[in-house]
Amino acid sequence: MSNKNTEKIIEWLLRLSALVTVLTTIGIIWVLLSESVSFFQQVSIIEFLTDTQWTPLYKDKHFGIMPLVSGTLLTTFIAVSVALPLGLVIAIYLSEYAPKKFRKTVKPLLEILAAVPTVVYGFFALMVVTPFLQTIIPNLSGFNALSAGIVMGIMIIPFVTSFSEDALQAVPKSLKHGAFALGSTRLQTSFRVMVPAASSGIVVSVILAFSRAIGETMIVAIAAGQQPRLTANPLVPIETITTYIVQVSLGDVPHGSLEYKTIFAAGMTLFVFTFILNNISFWIRKKFREKYD
Amino acid sequence: MTNSRKNRLKDKGFEYLGVACSLFGLVVLAIFIGDILADGLSRIDWDFLKSLPSRKPEKAGIFTAWTGSLWILVFTTIIAFPLAVSAGIYLEEYGGNGRWSSLLEVNISNLAGVPSIIYGLLGLEIFVRIFKMGNSVLAGAFALALLILPIIIVATREAIRTVPPSIRAASYALGATKWQTIWNQVLPASMGGIFTGVILAISRAVGETAPLIIVGALAYVPFAPSSPMDEFTVMPIQIFNWVSRPQHGFTVNAAAAIIILLLITFVMNGIAVYLRNKWQKKINW
Amino acid sequence: MDNHILESKSVNVYYDDMHALKNISMKVEANSVTALIGPSGCGKSTFLRVFNRMNDYIEAFRMDGEVLMEGKNIYHKKMQVDELRKSIGMVFQKPNPFPKSIFENVAYGLKIQGIKDKEFIQNRVEKSLQQAALWDEVKSDLNKSALALSGGQQQRLCIARALAVEPRVLLMDEPTSALDPISTAKVEELINELKQNYTIVIVTHNMQQASRLSDYTAFFYMGDLIEFGKTEEIFRNPKVERTQNYITGRFG
Description:
The structure holds 3 protein chains of 3 kinds.
Chain A lengths: L1 H39 L4 H6 L15 H32 L2 H16 L2 H19 L8 H26 L2 H9 L4 H12 L1 H17 L2 H6 L17 H10 L7 H35 L1
Helix pairs in contact in A: 1-12, 3-6, 3-9, 4-6, 5-6, 6-9, 7-8, 9-12, 11-12
Chain B lengths: L2 H38 L5 H5 L12 H32 L4 H15 L2 H15 L6 H25 L3 H9 L4 H30 L2 H6 L19 H9 L4 H35 L3
Chain C lengths: L3 E12 L2 E12 L3 E5 L6 H7 L10 E9 L2 E2 L7 H7 E4 L10 H10 L6 H14 L3 H4 L12 H13 L5 E5 L7 H14 L4 E5 L3 H7 L2 E6 L2 E7 H6 L4 H7 L5
Parallel strand pairs in C: 3-8, 3-9, 6-7, 7-8
Antiparallel strand pairs in C: 1-2, 1-4, 4-5, 9-10
């Protein structure tokens, strides 16, 4: 009967749409892998992982990814050390202390921070934050990891806050009431009962914050510089993996050239980092959900 | 001082810290918006919206940028909306609990965490090169559509989940097939939630810069696109380009363009919040 | 009892390991009201849903035995479930109107059958609302949202919605349990009217309701059909002690 056939066709169309998401993943892995493989036929993996210079665009070519990785991790650590304490304190305050009205007004306003396009944050870092920091730290370069990292941290505050708050809200009320009944203050209840009980959710928020910061592009491309260097000094220009990819894409690099392949090798490195972090967080979230269901 | 007195003081102290931290983000946001307005507001006029890019900052405008953004936005939506809503329906209504559906679930959660710049690399290789779309609006739209797919899928699933089972039961009991029930009852009842997700996703796409740079959107395009196969630029790329120039005039231009970009983003988010509130009121069955 | 329309033959229902209905064989007389009674969890609602296969959506559900409608096994592989449900309507415990207009609610069953004739649909909507004794209250605002109606009106709307496709049988799962006494009286009155043209099977918790409304009564207990017969006989002199205890309110 035609009714049955239509139903079957529709189900298949819907299934195909769902399949697109799988194809996207396969496509990403295939693209990164195939170009990287051809990159590593010309450059040894050992050099890629151990050389301390990254200069594929110069005459004296070096292909050590470490300077880009260090630049990425530097900005990421600065961002997370801004976002984590702020985001967590806000989450605890909103969830355990704040009057309902305050929470209802402040939460959506904070969400705006996550909605602002990243290119706008880049402008902010370069034009406002760096000049301001230069009045305190006179030897701060015009491009630096510090300012980009701080601004990126502000951007990811809402991520940390909203994930941590969800985790705190998921803790059974009976635990909290038990602590109050023993005469604990809100502070003691928060840090001795709620935060430990919500720890897996909070860990997820931290991991996602890392993942988000590692993959962030425009803020660092605008404000952190384009000089790959192996350093932990936040005051000088550096280059992140993402910035390098942008830098190459803005130039005119012919398809198939070694320079072209470098952006895929760099992209692969980036993907591996975020893939591992995302999967850890997914796994924790799944375990966590089972615990309270 | 007694112990409990100390504890109460600490408690109060943390409360002030909480307020301070909550306000910190907002104050930074306010300073920033104030600074941008001071820099750029006076630069915005009709000429700024109607002018092509130029080497002289006082003559340059954002016409090609905002028309490019509009083209990208329309095509991204056309591609992403049907795909994402269909995938969301499939996962929620047909997926079941098997291994296939849990694989899909892990996969979508993973895609949501892939950095946007990687979607640019995907688009460059697949759409620009293999499908030979070149550095066109279409190639950019496909890359962005894949990027926002997970956002709309998640929103669709959440919206569908709020439709009470009694509505489905009533429809089935009247002899409706599964698809008739989904199409006539489940989807209309969850449209508010789905649209909220779509608008948030589009607002994300409007602000995206990196993937479009990789796909080959140009900083300097002297004409507005007239077909989906044309080269293009978008607002964020124009801003990025101006920020990178040393002359003060371009900084002012960047600030002015940011005001307009933020306006678009905030209006879209506002609409999304409004829709969500209205819809949540309606679904108290 | 020869003029029967529905029949169950040795029906067993399981939810995973739980044996929810045990070997139920029973016939439903056409153009009559049959009441299914028994304490909560006795299987009466499950049994009602066996007749229009609404249990199919429960994952743990398994069934054996046969269920016949006019001699045809409705669990046969070739049975079209959507066709079956057009001839067996259902009214649920809580009113569940669609979040659409009153008109759209009643017209829905016709529209999904692919009927496009506007006049036909309009006439059928009016007729169904009249049958459900709701027409006079809503005729001026058919385009108003069904969710704006009172609970009792919503339940009568759901009855009209079920009637619009002209089913032979109407299954009612505690249709008045969510209603106030006045609305309940209206719905009961309606059921009395409807039995001239329809076969009605009704699940109820309310003994008075069963005795007032039904021609036949089936008493279920822990998945067993304990006693089935003419309502007068069941209520006046039940053959099984457990039935008597339940009817007289000694348990349940």
